[in-house]
Amino acid sequence: MSEQPPKSYLVESILVTLFCCLPFGIAGIVNASKVESRFYAGDKEGAQRASDEAKKWMKWGIISAAIFTVLYIFIMVVFGVGAATNSFY
């Protein structure tokens, strides 16, 4: 039975790049692209490090998108309520 390379998180990193946060997604893609090449070159520790880095950047992209979404909603609610109560009619 042959050993499998670590999860690359390439698809997740691409989705983060497209829908969440471009810089974190790109960092994830760069690291995800190193996983299989390092694994098949015999550098299993390097492949695992690249996988861990890709996972880290993918998670930070999702977390930052969630934080910005919550902040955006909060700001819209606060200023939306303020605009509705201070009309200039």
From TrEMBL:
Name of this chain's protein: CD225/dispanin family protein
InterPro entries hit by this protein: CD225/Dispanin, CD225/Dispanin_fam
The keyword Transmembrane appears for this protein: yes
Keywords tagged on the record: Membrane, Transmembrane, Transmembrane helix
Residues annotated as transmembrane: 9-30, 60-84
Ranges in a coiled coil: none
One GO CC term on file: membrane
Protein's cellular compartments: Membrane
Species name: Flammeovirga pacifica
Pfam families xref list: CD225 (PF04505)
